[in-house]
Amino acid sequence: MDMSLKSRRVLTLLTLLIICAPICVMAQPGFDPGVPDGAPIDGGLSMLAIAGVSYAAKKIYNKRKNQEKTAEE
Fold first, then answer.
1. CB of 29 within 8 A of CB of 22?
2. Residue 55 falls inside a structural domain
3. Is residue 72 part of a domain?
4. Total structural domains within the chain
C-alpha cells in the first residue's frame, strides 16, 4: 500500500501526539489535608457488577437449557 507523503506526515504527527500527550497532561490538584485521596465505590459500580452477574447467569441457564434440548433429540 503506497501512502502519500502528506498521509505519512499526518500519521507520524498523530502518533507523536498520542505518545507525548501523557507527558503534557496535568492531574487535578489534591484535596485538603484531612480528606483521603481514594475514589469512592458508589452505587453505579455495584449496579454494573449486578448486571454482569445477571447476564452471566442467563447465559449459563440458556446454555444448559440448549444442552438438555439437544440431548432429548
1. no
2. yes
3. yes
4. 1
Structural domain range at position 62: 43-73
pLDDT tens digits in sequence order for the chain, 73 residues long? 567 888 889 999 999 988 887 776 766 666 677 776 666 667 677 888 899 999 999 999 999 999 988 888 7
CA distance 63 to 43: 30
Q: Is 52 a member of any domain?
A: yes
Classify residue 49: in a domain, yes or no.
Answer: yes
Taking the model in full, what pTM does it have?
A: 0.43
Number of alpha carbons in the 13 Å side-chain half-sphere of residue 56: 6
Cell (9 digits) for 21? 500527550
